[in-house]
């Protein structure tokens, strides 16, 4: 488990299983030019965030010009990248068609056309765009849709097109969704010339924060921090039953502190942990599922988390350190739930841990890689001390470079440094394209008022359903308002999972929070809690079939059935599906809510841990001995009383779970007696 994995091999695994970094092959000369542009993109963002004084609108425009042009150069028009050829002909230069080169140049022009104009001129033309404004805005709209299709997939582009049509033909929409409709000129004015569209919050956050943290993650992994985490996880958990699976959990949790990508986390740690899990006796689909479920925690694990966390900062206007603090306990519960199921599976199968020869030595690991912790400590210290995320990321990057050049182990060379800058830019292209497309979607929502219309529809349906249920005998225990909140949360969770099955987590979060947050606010849910609820369910889509990308990446490494892996990963990550409901009903779990009280927090945390553990028992079908189907259903039912808020519900839960626990203990004692020497 302690053997390293080359950066090239990990990059190849990521390209194979992550659709957003499947770049087409290019010829040598054009490849050098593209590398130069990628490195320039990284250097520009580092300069702009660390030392430059660039207008916000211009910064977003420059970022967008890099993203759009490089996507046209690196992603072919066809989803099957193998159809691209590196041959040079009269219509193709180094594998890139002249039409793609023309589109890249056009993208730069239309992205910078408006930001390069003086701010007062742009402000004067908002509401009354010129013909050239409409033409350039229309071109940008089309280019963003095509770039998103190439780099992210067809689903998100289709959603954006449908919403654009809805904006234009809203007079024909049914019921509460009906609106007066917008002209093409009015639509382009809103999407192109205001900060409510393409140049809005999403692209601004990616340009200001996300790009730097992606670059930090690439550099930190390159200088050996990722390998340190994997080796430390082996030292901590490798010797116990089913050791490699527990190593996968701990290593993914630690790697999640520098990676906001579920798939990158899966292939980085999974290349080592999945074969080791199979070796000690786990089935291939279970080994892949453990790695995938653990790796989805990367987007919810401080201090980096995913891009959505930075957008949350902009939406809620609260310090980033409060987001990190709020994420701490829910992330821990996610890993706790996986750990319980992995441990029970190992006990059920009687699996061994790693031998002393298979595990690295703690002192050897620390002596080799201790210096690589410095950049992460710098980053965390600056964030905790109240510095802005971009400031912390800049100095974290500086720390990576300095440590990389002075560290005798995994020394960073100039070619490595250049390649890391290029890789960081490559990894940021898809999220940049998605952010631009999200700008279109959010722009239509704000232009038409769709968010509030849908919120009204959702809350009305939930309230009617709650009223119907509470009118019966259940009304003695459940109120209409409580049921309305529950069904609104349930509808929102299902919508997040469905949306997340086709588009990235960040896009899912922004779209759903525009619709769901107003609905939850109407029912008294705090903004921070509502945003976290949507965020968590958007992340869950990475392990939810039919499009469980992280699970499919793990299945590819394990040689397992992808759909079976996805189902198992969802089962292992079931805690992530429960925890959001827990912190909605008891916000103290997020630590930074105004009504935080220590006693409420401790009661909620202990109840959540017991409930998650019991659900793990029920899903695993094993505690001290094998459980029947009725017992499994019964113990899962009992677990719901523990995750519900309040001492009273926990008492009811203990009452329900006690018979099963007694039967399990007695069965275990009989088994021990039957296997003892005296009985034979």
Describe the structure in your own words:
- With 680 residues, this protein is an all-alpha fold.
- Among the domains are: 7-152 and 182-196, no CATH class; 597-680.
- It is built from 29 helices and two strands.
- It has helices at 7-17, 28-50, 56-74, 98-113, 119-125, 131-151, 154-168, 184-193, 201-222, 225-237, 243-255, 262-280, 284-295, 307-316, 320-349, 362-369, 373-384, 389-406, 414-448, 450-470, 480-500, 505-522, 527-540, 549-558, 562-572, 574-585, 598-620, 629-643, 647-675; strands at residues 92-93, 96-97.
- Strands 1-2 form a two-stranded antiparallel sheet.
- The longest helix has 35 residues, at 414-448.
- It is globular, with a radius of gyration of 26 Å.
- The model is unreliable at 2-10 (pLDDT under 50).
Salient structural properties:
single chain; 680 residues; mainly alpha; two-stranded antiparallel ribbon; 29 helices; 72% helix; disordered N terminus
What ranges have pLDDT less than 50 throughout 5 or more consecutive residues?
Answer: 2-10
What is the CA–CA distance across the termini? Answer: 41 Å
Question: How many helices in DSSP terms?
Answer: 29
Shape estimate = globular
Radius of gyration from the alpha-carbon trace, in angstroms = 26 Å
Major beta sheet, strand line-up: 1-2
Q: In percent, how much strand structure appears in the residues?
A: under 5%
The total of beta strands comes to 2
Oligomer: single chain
The chain-level structural class is mainly alpha
The share of residues in helices is over 70%
Mean pLDDT metric: 83
């Amino acid at each position: 488990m302690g053997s390293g994995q080359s950066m090239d091999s990990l990059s190849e695994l990521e390209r194979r299983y992550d659709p957003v970094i499947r770049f087409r092959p290019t010829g040598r000369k054009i490849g050098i030019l593209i590398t130069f542009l990628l490195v320039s993109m990284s250097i520009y963002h580092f300069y702009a965030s660390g030392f430059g004084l660039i207008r916000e609108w211009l910064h977003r425009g420059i970022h967008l010009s890099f993203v759009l042009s490089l996507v046209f150069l690196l992603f072919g028009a066809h989803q099957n990248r193998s159809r691209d050829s590196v041959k040079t002909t009269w219509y193709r230069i180094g594998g890139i068609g002249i039409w793609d080169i023309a589109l890249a140049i056009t993208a730069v022009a239309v992205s910078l056309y408006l930001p390069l104009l003086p701010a007062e001129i742009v402000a004067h033309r908002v509401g009354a765009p010129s013909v050239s404004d409409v033409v350039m805005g229309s071109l940008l709209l089309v280019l963003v849709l095509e770039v998103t299709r190439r780099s992210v997939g067809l689903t998100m582009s289709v959603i954006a097109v449908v919403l654009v049509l809805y904006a234009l033909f809203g007079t024909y929409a049914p019921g509460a969704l009906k609106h007066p409709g917008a002209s093409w000129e009015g639509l382009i004015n809103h999407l192109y010339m205001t900060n409510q569209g393409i140049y809005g919050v999403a692209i601004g956050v990616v340009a200001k924060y996300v790009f730097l943290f992606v670059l930090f993650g690439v550099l930190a992994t390159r200088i050996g921090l990722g390998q340190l985490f994997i080796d430390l996880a082996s030292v901590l958990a490798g010797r116990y039953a089913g050791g490699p699976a527990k190593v996968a959990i701990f290593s993914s949790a630690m790697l999640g502190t520098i990676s906001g990508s579920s798939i990158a986390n899966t292939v980085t740690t999974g290349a080592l942990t999945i074969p080791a899990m199979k070796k000690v006796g786990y089935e291939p689909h279970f080994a892949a599922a453990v790695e995938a479920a653990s790796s989805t925690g990367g987007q919810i694990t401080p201090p980096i988390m995913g891009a959505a966390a930075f957008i949350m900062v902009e939406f809620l206007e609260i310090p980033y350190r409060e987001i990190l603090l709020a994420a701490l306990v829910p992330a821990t519960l996610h890993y706790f739930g996986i750990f319980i199921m992995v441990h029970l599976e190992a006990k059920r199968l009687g699996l061994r841990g790693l031998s002393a020869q298979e595990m690295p030595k703690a002192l050897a690991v620390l002596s080799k890689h201790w210096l690589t912790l410095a950049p992460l400590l710098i980053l965390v210290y600056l964030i905790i001390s109240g510095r802005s995320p971009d400031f912390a990321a800049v100095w974290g990057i500086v720390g990576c470079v300095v440590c990389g050049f002075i560290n005798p182990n995994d020394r960073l060379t100039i070619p490595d440094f250049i390649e890391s800058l290029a890789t960081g830019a490559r990894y940021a292209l898809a999220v940049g394209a998605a952010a631009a497309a999200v700008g279109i979607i959010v722009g239509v929502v704000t232009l038409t008022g769709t968010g509030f219309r849908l919120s009204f529809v959702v809350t009305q349906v939930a309230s009617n359903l709650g009223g119907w249920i509470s009118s019966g005998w259940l009304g003695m225990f459940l109120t209409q308002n409580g049921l309305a909140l529950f069904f609104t949360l349930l509808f929102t969770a299902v919508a997040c999972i469905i949306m997340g099955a086709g588009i990235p987590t960040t896009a899912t979060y922004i779209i759903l929070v525009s619709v769901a947050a107003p609905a939850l606010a109407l029912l008294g849910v705090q903004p921070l809690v509502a945003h976290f609820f949507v965020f968590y369910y958007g992340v869950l889509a990475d392990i939810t079939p039919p499009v469980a990308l992280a699970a499919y990446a793990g299945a590819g490494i394990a040689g397992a059935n992808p759909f079976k892996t996805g189902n198992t990963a969802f089962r292992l990550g079931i805690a992530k599906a429960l925890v959001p409901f827990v912190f909605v009903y008891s916000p103290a779990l997020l630590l930074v809510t105004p009504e935080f009280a220590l006693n409420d927090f401790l009661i909620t945390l202990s109840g959540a841990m017991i409930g998650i553990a019991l659900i793990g028992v029920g899903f695993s079908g094993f505690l001290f001995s094998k459980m029947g189907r009725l017992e499994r259903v019964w113990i899962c039912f009992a677990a719901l009383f523990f995750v519900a808020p309040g001492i009273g519900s926990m008492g009811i839960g203990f009452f329900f779970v006690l018979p099963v626990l007694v039967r399990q203990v007695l069965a275990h004692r009989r088994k021990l007696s039957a296997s003892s020497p005296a009985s034979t």
